[in-house]
Write a structure and sequence with these properties.
disordered C terminus; 4 helices; five-stranded antiparallel sheet; alpha+beta; disordered N terminus; two-stranded parallel sheet; 165 residues
Length: 165
């Protein structure tokens, strides 16, 4: 489900709808196959247990996919090209196959910058994942940027010579 949302200064500090994520063994294996990840704690049950884990360990970069799969997409309403501008992870405890985690995302900041290519809007999100007892296990900080006023159907090169698509 997609939900349109205006991101403006009034959203800063607001909580997006929380999500519950059941970590599935097969999802970890599928993610590892699709990304070429071969580290045994992510792909081999026995190796993960031998290393002291409860089961296969979720790869760090899989956390954002898990949240996005369960959380409605929020987008700023305007024409323009958008992209991820960075992601940082703080892992406080391993998350393993079979775990259930709760994810709460907050709008940390929204701001605009104007440069020679025009005005861009930045949205910073922070997602906190907690385990069943409520202990924080992962914090994800993400930034997204959208260029205001661009024609999303245009494939003409931008002023810097790169395609605007």
């Amino acid at each position: 489900m997609t939900q349109e949302e205006n991101f403006d200064d009034a959203r800063v500090g607001k909580e997006l709808p929380p999500v519950t994520i059941r970590v599935e063994r097969e999802a970890i294996l599928r993610y590892c196959r699709s990304t070429g990840m071969t580290e045994p704690i992510h792909t081999d049950d026995e190796a993960a247990r031998a290393a002291g884990y409860r089961g296969l360990v979720v790869p760090i970069t899989m956390f954002t996919q898990m949240v996005r799969d369960e959380q409605p997409q929020f987008r700023r309403r305007f024409h323009g090209m958008g992209m991820g501008a960075g992601t940082a992870f703080e892992v406080l405890a391993p998350v393993c196959a079979g775990d259930i985690v709760e994810g709460t995302t907050y709008v940390k900041d929204v701001f605009t910058k104007t440069g020679r290519s025009g005005t861009m809007t930045f949205v910073l999100l922070e997602t906190i994942l907690t385990d069943q007892p409520g202990k924080r296990v992962v914090t994800i900080t993400e930034s997204f940027v959208r260029r205001d006023g661009a024609d999303p159907t245009s494939s003409r090169p931008a002023a810097d010579g790169h395609s605007s698509r």
